[in-house]
Amino acid sequence: MAYVRTNERLSGDPSYTVMWRTGGSRTGQTQRETFDDEGAAKRFRDLVNGHGQQWPPEWVKGEGFVKPGEPEMPDSEKFSAYAHAYVGLLTDISEHTRTNYTRFIDNHMIPWFGDLSVSDRGSRLTRDHISLWILDLQHGRPGPSTLRARSAGRMRRRRSPIFTACSTASSSPL
Predict the structure, then answer these.
(1) What pLDDT shows up at residue 174?
(2) HSE of 72 in the Cβ direction (CA atoms, 13 Å)?
(3) Burial 64-78 (b: 16+ CB within 10 A, else e)
(4) Element (H, E) at 132
(5) Taking a C-beta distance cutoff of 8 angstroms, is the pair 163, 171 a contact?
(6) Within a 13 Å sphere around the CA of 13, how many CA atoms are in the beta-carbon half?
(7) Are the beta carbons of 137 and 162 closer than 8 angstroms?
(8) CA atoms in the 13 A half-sphere facing the CB of 90
(9) Spans of the chain, pLDDT less than 50
(10) Which pLDDT score is estimated for 148?
(11) Which residues neighbour 149 within 8 Å (Cβ) at sequence distance 6 or greater?
């Protein structure tokens, strides 16, 4: 029988892991899928139980339901490409500033949400992602990579045009 296990991340936030054994037997291989939302984890647990302790059809581990033949999200719709294009189109800034913005994006944004989508396809960048990223940096929490966090003051000075790019990406699809 599938069940939900609550875990605590290093940041202190909870995660919810659905665990079961393939086919429901003692000797079945242990399977797991992790969620940020408890409700989503419980719905997935019910799907696994309803499908005889198997992965639900068309479910892709770590991604969710994927329609057969659905094209992959093109790189141009990922945050990393969008942010670089945004900085490339900024006017009234020096090349030095453009280089600094690009370096900041590469080092302090892409590790957090570089593969998130700015369109309606795939895992979409939301305002919550941006808020959590800023909080992580302000409180010195490590990101997905081994980057060191920036001070809150430095974040305020650096983030205005880049924050605008994030807000634009999270509020309207391409």
Answers:
(1) 42
(2) 6
(3) eeeeeeeeebeeebb
(4) helix 127-138
(5) no
(6) 10
(7) no
(8) 22
(9) 146-152, 172-174
(10) 47
(11) 136, 137, 138, 139, 140, 141, 142, 143
Specify the residue for token string 């581990």: 61
Q: Write down the residue that tokens 């960048």 correspond to.
A: 125
Distant-in-sequence, close-in-space partners of 8: CB < 8 Å, separation ≥ 6: 14, 15
What does the block give as tokens for 133?
């990223």
Sequence-distant (≥ 6) Cβ neighbours of residue 81 within 8 angstroms: 75
Please report the pLDDT score of residue 160 as a whole number.
55
| DSSP letters spanning 17-59 | EEEEEGGG-TTSPEEEEEES-HHHHHHHHHHHHHTTSSPPTTE
- 157 token code pair: 């000075």
Q: What is the pLDDT of residue 42?
A: 92
The phi and psi torsions of 29 (rounded to 5 degrees) equal -65, 135
Residues of the chain with pLDDT > 90: what percent?
A: 13
Q: Which tokens in the block code for residue 4?
A: 């939900």
Tell me the whole-structure pTM to 2 decimals.
0.48
* CA dihedral over 92, 97, 99, 100, signed as positive or negative: negative
What region, left, alpha or beta, does residue 57 occupy, with left being phi > 0 and alpha being psi -120 to 50 degrees? beta
Buried b (16+ CB within 10 A) or exposed e, 43-56: ebbebbeeeebbbe
